User: Fold this.
Amino acid sequence: MPTTAATSPALSDRSRAANPIPTPSEPVSHVDGGCGVAHDPASPVWPEPAIWLPEASPGTLILTPAPPDFETVHSIDRNAFGLSIVGRTDADGRELVVADGSGELHVSLRDEQAARRPAVLVPLDGMGELRADVALHFVRRLSGQRTGLLPAALRLTSFQKRRLIQLLHAFDVHDLGGGPRDVAAKVLASDHAQRRSVEWKDSHARRKANRLIHDSIALVERGYLKLLRGL
Assistant:
């Protein structure tokens, strides 16, 4: 998910009074590990992507050592896969994020032998087809074919990226106490936000601003997880 955020200057008192804003349905604790967004807002923002749990992300390739009888297995040439931008090792193994022009492939190495004798683990859950598609792209890339790391279903389009940035901007305005007028002015750059109450009430900008606020709250309240599944 894009990490672009925006700040807003003083917000309209009239907008806050005339347009009550929906609040998140459940409070989310930021001290017990339960964050409403992928990155705890109280923590510094680093230019690194989040590392997702494999069970939540079909775009995470799970590698395990191949059985010993498979003598033709070849080790992975990391140079063939693009730039490794994140690496982390913990008790569960090693996590890598590799990037190319098609997106970011998350790789979970469950054992130090997994890179030398790789076998792909494809859980047959509700995202099994997507996981298999990611594995197929991996196999093709490993054999030298020119293909993206991710299938098309898991790539954000330019429109989706612009939409997500707009939603995050709208949420910032809302989170600072802004109402639909403020979102219309600061996010949509609409002059309808300055119109009289009667004209503003029936305007397209007001309806669009309300939708942005509603959708931005849903996105932050774990709706972003749908992006991992290509939804």
